[in-house]
Every structure is written in structure tokens, then in C-alpha cells.
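Forwarding the complex inputs:
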Amino acid sequence: MNKQIKVFAPATVANVACGFDVLGFALNEPGDEVILQTTDSNEVTLSKITGDGGKLPLDVSKNTAAAVIKHYLAHIGSRQGIDIQLHKRMPLGSGLGSSAASAVAGLFAVNELLGSPLTRAELLPFAMEGERIASGAAHADNVAPALLGGFVLVRSYNPLDIVSIPFPKDLVATVVHPQIEIRTEDARSILKKSILLKDAIQQWGNIGGLIAGLIQGDYDLIKRSLQDVIIEPVRSLLIPNFDKVKQAALESGALGCSISGSGPSIFALSNSLAIAGEIASAMRKELKVIGIDCDVYISPINNVGARVLGVQQEKGENLVFTHSSYAND
Amino acid sequence: MNKQIKVFAPATVANVACGFDVLGFALNEPGDEVILQTTDSNEVTLSKITGDGGKLPLDVSKNTAAAVIKHYLAHIGSRQGIDIQLHKRMPLGSGLGSSAASAVAGLFAVNELLGSPLTRAELLPFAMEGERIASGAAHADNVAPALLGGFVLVRSYNPLDIVSIPFPKDLVATVVHPQIEIRTEDARSILKKSILLKDAIQQWGNIGGLIAGLIQGDYDLIKRSLQDVIIEPVRSLLIPNFDKVKQAALESGALGCSISGSGPSIFALSNSLAIAGEIASAMRKELKVIGIDCDVYISPINNVGARVLGVQQEKGENLVFTHSSYAND
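Prediction (whole assembly, two chains):
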């Protein structure tokens, strides 16, 4: 009697201006869906990937979601057979945590299928392992918000210390994904290994201010603090017209605007859906001027993280979805 | 009809581990007292300094308190004559914001004498000017908490942006001041102008965690975050037996322990007066071992900042003090 589960894990914005490598937040959409099914074999198989334009490997050892599921099963000592279907509902290589969404969706799904032996927080190291497979570095600033939702501070990597940061409920993200490609490796290698102490001081003033502003719901403080004097000035060189896109966002009422993850996506935060829409139009326009198309996402901050969309207990029965909008997916 | 006012401004702990140059807090004691009296001349005079062991200049142009008062009077266009008595009730060159306490006490007093034309926040730039006179750099991380009380984040210097950070009310500071001398200039010059990006990332994780812990009253998070991987490892070389003093504090229940300002004072934070006392004994013992005496201060966080101790409206009348303990001072 095999079981099937459908899980969604959201796209995430990492770095968040002054929070390079330590802060991220989750979007309601886009994100990834996985459908996991228990099988009678002892194998992890990957039967289907959609939405990736044929770019992702079907090879179980190379696919992030499959690899983390195998790692998870070995850790808990299970020989359960699992078949994976991965439906990418978000762009790859966009700076929106695509590999994190796949890894988190897969892990959350397999953990649910097996009766939740691990907590969300305990799943985190496995998801980070997925990041290592995908990009060579076990970052937590995408996987942690994808798993837990909300704003997440990675206070420390060694030992791993993840802190959920309360935030004002009206906060909305506008994200534009320009149709250009930046490799994560390039975005990393453009950064210098050393920075000026005086710049670092500015940055920790801003991260302190941003955390205080988020917790206290002080939009003005959030606005003053959403500045990155270290990473953005370098990485923005890789994104055509970045300065004008940012300026357009700020002039449309954004609290702040910076690069999402390692780019090329650009995010802006604001405190209403209406303003978020205006920001989106203004940003899109500045990319259009130089002939670059973009995807646009407008989303409140996702306070849930990965979630179950539906479970099918026995073969042949109807799927019972927790969100009816996904029923006919 | 001349008027006299007595004002106290507290000692302060700047840097606060991971908050180099951006975070400070105020103590209840020690601190400085000034007595200001209006005079019939147009001059600012400095008639008396006590408690400085003869180290501070009586020259009005060189004394920090006198200089900032002159600067203040010029700014508001007043030719009021003022005589100053400065009573140092705290050690000089201790890393506890001695010059900040003098400047803030003087400014707060003259502003009160003249009917408070400026707010506390508006006095801040004048107090920073005092820091420039005293140490060559217009730092705000001592003067801001001395003026405003509590924990203060200097989010930005340009423009100046000072953010008061709520904190749990049980927080207590233990401060030991070893009887050795470190010049602020030496403590500055030992620092490198560049730091590793990976160290900076750790630091902004910790400052984010500390701010979140303070606001949310999460002692465990405060404890995990009170770490300085950049400044303390370098500056602690100037303080004999620092590592053992710190270890003793932590083993006695301190949430964290680091250098106060540019040293040589060492502060520890805890969440009860009883623990703070045990920490003090343990720290003192580790200094005693190598033959160094120290002053010890145990103080809840001062949430008031500079305050009026007493006002005398007319010559000959009795002083009416707001705190009777100071009446016979």
C-alpha cells in the first residue's frame, strides 16, 4: 500500500542588502513542487522533471532533490523506496534559491512520508548538503527560509545557529528576474576576500538596524538600514542597468532594493501590494529600455515555509489537497 | 540672579563584543558630575576639577566639557557666562567613556540651565565634537548611551542615525578596570584597516543575533551572539591575562565578556546581580594572580542617561536635589 505526497517549497531571497550570507526570506511564489511516492524497491528513483527546460540531470546522484533524499534515508537508516517527480515552478539560476527549493521540497516530502521523524530544523543540515552539491558551498541563507518561512538570520555556521526574525505583516516583496544568466561561481569570484574595516562597520550598523526594524515593525528604520556598501557595488556590475532599476524602485516607494542572492534577480521591499505593483512596473520599464525582458513576482513574505499540498493514502483514491487551487495541477 | 545646576552623566561600555563602533550601553555608575553656574561675564570658565589626579587641563580650550559648552553656546547664539566645576567620579583612560561622560554632563547641564532649547538627540553632535577633541575621532558609541541611556545602536555616521535598542530589564553589567594604561591611539593603531570578508560575515551574524536577543529578551541568543572575532583577538593582546579573565567570567555565568571600548576595562553581562557579583570576584582573582589590581563596578543597565541631580535657583538658597544621596556631596 504505497503512499504519495505533494509538497511545495518556496523561492527565497538571500543576502537582503546588508545581510550577505546571513539573512534570507521566503516568498509565497514562485517555488518548486515535488511529488514523492513510496515504492516497493529499495531505490530512490527520479521519474520526471518538468519546468527545467531539460537543464537538470535525471541522474539520481547528480540531482539535488534526489541526492538529499538519499542522504536523508541513509541517515535515518531507512531502505524505503521512493520515486520523485520534480516540477520546477521557478526559474533556474535566477538568484531565487532554485536548488534550495528543490532540496527543501524533497526533504520535507520524504520526512512527511515517513511520519516526520525529524523536525524542520533538523532537516536543515541535509538541505545545506544539497546546496553543496548544487553550488559547491553549503549555504543556509536560502534553505533555512525555504524550510521555515519568514525572515531567517544565520547567526553562525559553526555551530549552525538559525534564528527566525519576526517581521511586520504588511511587508511585500517585488522581485524582477531579468532574462540574463549569471553563474553563481562568477558572482562569488568577483568578490574580494578582504574588505575595509570601515565598510564592515557600516554594514554591521545596517544589519543591526534592519533586524531591529523588522522585529519592531519600524518601516522607516528598515528603509534606512536596507543598504549594502560591500557586495552590491561589486555584483551589480554583472546586472545591466542595475542602478537605474534600483532607483526606479526607490522612487516608486520601495523601502529598499538590492540583488537577490547572487543575482541576476533584483528584489525590492515595500509595505503594500499596491506599491509593490508600482515598483514592479517601474523596474520592468528600466530593463525594457535596454531590451531585457523579465519575470516579475509580487509576494507577501511567506511565513510558512515548505508545506504539504496533498496526500494520497492509497492507490486509486482521489488526492485530498490542502490547497484546492493545486487540485487539478 | 544666577542659577546653578548639578548633572550626572554615566560611564558607558562601547563596542559590546560584536558591535565595534556601532553599539554601546550606559552604566548606573560610575560617571561624572558637573556643577554649572551662570555668571555675569560673557565667558566660559573652569574653576575646579576634582578626581582626575591633576591630569586634565584647566585650560578652557583644551578641556572637553568646557570646549563643548563653548561650542554649544556659539551654536545657539548665547553669550551667557558659565562657570564649570567638573568632578570626575570615574577613572580616566579606562575604556569606560570618561571624555564622553564629561562632555555629555557639561552639555546636558548647560542646555538645562538655558531652558532646554535642544533635545537630547540634538545635543549628540556637540558631544561627538567633544570626542574629537579628546581622541581625534568623533565617535558616538559612548556619547549616545551616556546621553540617552540604555543600549544604543549607531546605525550610521553619515547621516548620523542613532537607534535605541530595547533590552531585558534584568541585564546587569560587571566591569573590571585593571590598573594598567592603554592609550586610545595605541588601541586604534593595533587594528588592521582590512579584514577578511568571512570574519565580517561572522560578525554581522552576531550583531544581528545580539540585537534580536536584546529586543526579544532572549538571554540564550544574547549569549550565543556576544562574540567578537575581529577586534577582541587583536586588542586583547594589550590586556595581560585577558583570556583567563574572560574564561573566569564565562565560567561564573556571564552571558558574554569582552573589552570595554578600547580597554583596558573588561565587561561581562549577566542576568542577575548575584551572578554579576560572582563574575566580579572571579575576574578580579585572575588579575590578582598576575599582580594587577582593579576597580570593579556592578551595575544594571542605565536606562536614563544624563540626569539632573539638583538645581539651585538663587544664591543663598538651599540646593534642592532630586537624589538625596548627593545632597552632601
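Chain B touches chain A at residues 18-23, 153-156, 161, 163, 165-166, 191-198, 200-212, 215-216, 221, 224-225, 230 (CB under 8 Å).
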